[in-house]
Amino acid sequence: MTWPSGPHNDITDVAGILVGHAQDLDALTGVTAVLAPAGAVVGVAVEGSAPGTRETDLCRPGNLVEQAHAVLLCGGSAFGLAAADGAMRHLAARGIGFPTSAGVVPIVPAAVLYDLEIGRPDLQPDAAMGAAACAAATDGPVAQGCVGAGTGCTAGKILGMANATKTGIGSASVLAGGVTVGAIVAVNPLGDVREEGRIIAGARRPDGPGFADTTRLLLGGAGAPYAGENTTIGVVAVGAALTKEQANKVARMAHDGLARTISPIHTMYDGDALFCLATGGEPANISLVGTAAAIAVELAVLRAVHSAISMGGLPAGV
Asked: Which of 39, 123, 205, 287 is 20 to 30 A from 177 in CA distance terms?
């Protein structure tokens, strides 16, 4: 089904949002920076059970800080969290951050995905790559596929990396009730990606063409040799005023988009996390915005597969 979208059909259709990528094509890893230089009310929902994150406690209701100035999506597993240090320095040098008596402190939540197996495990995103992604950020059309945090993304690793499918990062926007909602998602799950019920990326059969169906393998008792080496991460942006509680609710609702496209999702072997950034404006109907966020995430996941190319010895999907 086709939904109304903004001019770019990506997350930068939300006013106040910038996106930049940086990557290492030798190491097959990278960083995607989603910037909100004016600040955006932040929320988060971590539904996977093997997450690697930074500043997620700050994103939840009941804590002092309301706004974030950037969210980083990073490869490199837990090593990749170092990229957020570079983003902080980039923003601080421009006077962007939470005001304190000693100067601004940029608020930069982050999440990582595991991509060490496909490229070079000795090279991970660092502060320099995080700063480079921020420096590259614009409000123009977002590059998609095997760029930024999508550089090392794969799907369907239940039969081992040799039988996985190359995926990437995707973005989309949806217009709902006068509000623009966008999403950007780096797709790196244990499970398969489905479009209208058909597997388009995932575990490939080792004995011939086609996909093995990860869900059927799990239900049949197959183990997961790549436990904890997965994770789908992303950001939803809303061009409306949300409270912190509402931003957290929208982040939770947005996970429905993952559930509609990835099977299985939210396993013990995935660290799935979605952030929400609300850039301000008029108050919004949360049911409407959350529904649109789930659709935007769904579309972003599919675009991550359709935009991917073969890399690291693995074929692209579809």
From this structure: 39
DSSP states of 67-94 as a string?
A: EEEEEEEE-SGGGGGGHHHHHHHHHHTT
Q: Strand (E) positions, the chain? A: 18-24, 29-46, 53-54, 67-74, 98-100, 103-105, 110-112, 154-155, 165-166, 169-176, 179-186, 192-195, 198-201, 233-238, 262-263, 273-278
The total domain count for the chain is: 1
Question: What is the token pair recorded at 1?
Answer: 């089904």
- What pTM does this model have? 0.97
Please name the helix (run of DSSP H) or strand (run of DSSP E) that holds residue 290, with its range, or none: helix 286-306
Do the domain assignments include residue 318? no
Q: Is residue 6 part of a domain?
A: no
187 found inside a domain: yes
Residue-wise pLDDT tens digits, 37-81: 999 999 999 999 999 999 999 999 999 999 999 999 999 999 999
Nearest CA among 240, 231, 233 for reference residue 275: 233
Model confidence over 181-230: pLDDT tens digits?
999 999 999 999 999 999 999 999 999 899 999 999 999 987 766 566 89
Q: Print the domain residue range for 243.
A: 11-306
What is the rounded CA–CA span in Å between residue 308 and residue 279? 29
Alpha helices in 107-151 (DSSP H): 127-135
Domain of residue 66, CATH code: 3.60.70.12
Identify whether the C-beta of residue 127 lies closer than 8 Å to the C-beta of residue 86.
yes
CA separation for the pair 239, 74 (Å, rounded): 24
